[in-house]
Amino acid sequence: MAGVLTFDNLRPDVFESGQTLNTASYNLLFLADPTTAAGGGVSGVGAILNGRVGSSCDIAACPQGATGNYLAILNDGGVNFSRADRQAFTLAGFDYSFIAPVSGLPNQNWGQLQLNGTLSDGQVISTSLAFPGQGSDGNYHFQSASLLAGFSNYAFTGLTFNACIFNDTGACSNSLDFPAFNQGQFALDNINISAVPEPSTYMLMLAGLGAIGMLSRRRTGKFAASTVQGA
Predict the structure, then answer these.
(1) Is residue 59 in some structural domain?
(2) Into how many domains does the chain fold?
(3) Is the pLDDT at 208 greater than 70, yes or no?
(4) Which percentage of the chain shows pLDDT scores above 90?
(5) Predicted structure pTM score
(6) Which domain CATH number covers 59?
(7) What is the per-residue pLDDT across 18-33, written as a single tens digit (0 to 9) for each?
(8) Residue 116: which of 76, 161, 153 has the closest Cα?
């Protein structure tokens, strides 16, 4: 049930909002930026990029440190994760980075990665993480996420990632009223995600363990009886 999404089994590609990518039993739905979504339009918001090939990201300042492919969310878009079998799932961790629109920007905290998880009863649990700053080489690098236990312990039916950018008022925004102007961009990799079995599956597992225990006791009883008879 547990696994790590690395995207290394996928070929580099680009995706528009509304498209769905299926990988390792998960559906990734690409979401348009708020302005495009409000107008019912379609925009380019996703890409599978090869971190070992510098030319795969020749405009934006893409992160360093990827050993293979990673998922890039661009132009203020987002991505929603759900399981193809509709089971709930948990998120234990992932690597992430800011994708600056151009290289050479000052090293500062430009915004946050936002996570919104939907529970089976429709309740939404949210958290946010500050984007890592630049390294000593002036580039952005992947960093492991530090999730609060209260978030990683939930079982979600859907999980959305998007980014916000700090505006002049200090608020972190990416909305119709306060757009991020295509600067809300980020990369994800090594997503540690696990399906949660349905209660009926647990019951079958327990029944199987019970049957194994009963068989083991019977074998032990037979062995003891034969030992007494042979004494």
Answers:
(1) yes
(2) 1
(3) no
(4) 65
(5) 0.85
(6) 2.60.120
(7) 999 999 999 999 999 9
(8) 161
